[in-house]
């Protein structure tokens, strides 16, 4: 696997977690990881079932989404990943799935409200739903523009990509990221669980109110604040 | 298994995927595959549990649904499969299940609206629900007429069976097809997942709008259009 | 296991299917089978987790629910099973579970309407919900009276226990039966699946109509009528 | 593992049951068990995935939640457990999860009504939802005050912690307890199943009524009353 052996194995492992976590059916998803020193990222090949995927199938691309190593065609969503790596310096991995509940919220074109501490343990705002882009963008360089659909949504809402690490692409499905691809996978699983809980909350109480600010702050800070006391101190 | 060994094994393998994909309970489903050269198709025997099914149990039938090889009685839905093979030249396999969410839509007598790109990756129209047939057809050659219930529904809506490869038989459940039985199974799994997502979308937002046309077209074409760039180029 | 070895093994196997089918949590369910020649039935011991259950733990009781063989205390629902064996000559097995969707209908005190052919393949009426009994019956010989709650419900509705082999005990959960305990287990799984589909049908279309009579009749008769053509002819 | 080997193993085993029962995603939960003679309890370390947890990772704490043995940082919810052990003499174990349906009820800020006998087999009142505490408590010694949020809720409603062994912490999720940690785990699984059934009951019948008093009493007493006849007499 030449120069990219470690990166390909990391991308392979991350992709293989997606079906195990129940986040993908067939090939409906893709994970990528970046090597900032080399200025490349590795991504799942397009349309290859997880059961047949091997580390050597991972495609290495530059930040324009152009393949530079590997025998396969990269994921059709490659340019979206490329934009995120280019615009967001601090991220190490990106994951896209069509996980059932998060996708339903994306199809409903609704942000996922913060109803509880499970959500606030990860972010203190709603999970934003980026509305579909204009027709000429869709008809143009679609996957590239999907990257900017995400970028523009966070920017307009004045959200920091280091704090909000998951988003719904309207009518499509969730994208998540993290400092490593492992954390991006983790955020995909959290996003799906939070999406399911929020759906059920509204079914039980259509007038459910958002979590109060003090609880949002408390839960986020105990995991991610400067005096965080969750975990073993090495997150 | 005589002249039909390969066909029987293909049908056996396809049927065995149905319980693994969570699409059938007990014997609630059947898959068939055609051999166009010999003018026959193989289908699951009626009422045999998947755990006991063997390749040699597959029944070979002609395009009138008449068994011509095998020791078992074929699926009670055999004549429906026969009509589809007779009317639709290009299909290689047919699958029928009572998968939970797709069946619920069929029972609700509702088409499944295109709410997102997961759906548009496969078809750009609603998944049609063919309304129940007239009483004298039900009391007559029921399973044969079910084939024409499907055929007539597509015809009336001016839909092409090569583009719309899944349908709901009203009050009953989904039928899917494809150029191979493997693809027909795949479409059954996609139909169930799309049915679940559409159900959840309407629960979250009862006023959810259909996917915009440009997104429908983009997603369908990137997988199935003449310049498709999804997959490894051999779909 | 003395005189009842075969019966105990049959009851053991049937009980062990319940967790595998996802119909019970912990010890929330029980299956029994009858030996009409000996005038006894075997039933699961009370409160024993499935993981620890052994064939020799099965308790043999007479038709008054009195234990006559075995070292364990029988299921707390034993007298309900006893009433069903006494009143319904043709049944060979009885199963009670708290399976999630069927129990939700029982708690909602609603019959499960016939919305589709999956239901009509087994019975052509709604799955009846027997309303809770009078307070003095509850405070009296409760489990014995639960048997008569079932018996009276079918009688009042003029339903034949040979055609309607599943019922919801209101506020409690489903009971099913069959000519063998294997068929009673099968009916419990069908009841749960039909309950889930009917729930989803009403969520998708609150005005969903019952299945038309011709379809009810057609599907029931092709499996159970005198000219049935479903299965391999030995049901 | 020094003086606490047995306690650590008991806590380890209880924690490992949570993912097997489908009650936790990643590290979203914690189980603890007490040794009353030594005046300590063992609890899961904070943020450690279940797949990596080992018995020696369990942290031993005093009743103020202060770690006194072990190399890991204890669960961030440790002080909540500590309060429950201090205030409730008769409990041997405490479990906290973010199980999906119970958490949805907590997020909806609704008590779970007693709709059926599955619920009444364990408690005859609604499962209480303790409303979120005042802002200064949240900003102060939050996890300690969460213990008193639970304690005060039971006290205000005049509920006995020996009869009501499960509660929803509003906007957060369920806490359960029992005479042993094994029973606390069991109550977490029951709470989740009862939460799911109650949710479905209200979806099927928004006007569903609570279980009648005689049925509540009958079911609770046959399992827990002085003349209980459920189980093998050694609960």
From TrEMBL, chains A, B, C, D:
Cofactor(s) the protein needs: Zn(2+)
Signal peptide per UniProt: none
Pfam families for this protein: Aldolase_II
Catalytic activity: L-ribulose 5-phosphate = D-xylulose 5-phosphate
GO biological process, one term: pentose catabolic process
This protein's UniProt keywords: Carbohydrate metabolism, Isomerase, Metal-binding, Zinc
GO MF: aldehyde-lyase activity; L-ribulose-phosphate 4-epimerase activity; metal ion binding
GO cellular component, one term: cytosol
Entry's EC annotation: 5.1.3.4
Domain annotation Class II aldolase/adducin N-terminal: ranges: 9-199
Keyword Nucleotide-binding among record annotations: no
Transmembrane regions: none
Stated family: Belongs to the aldolase class II family. AraD/FucA subfamily.
PANTHER family named in the record: FUCULOSE PHOSPHATE ALDOLASE, L-RIBULOSE-5-PHOSPHATE 4-EPIMERASE SGBE
Protein name per Swiss-Prot or TrEMBL: L-ribulose-5-phosphate 4-epimerase
Gene this protein is translated from: araD
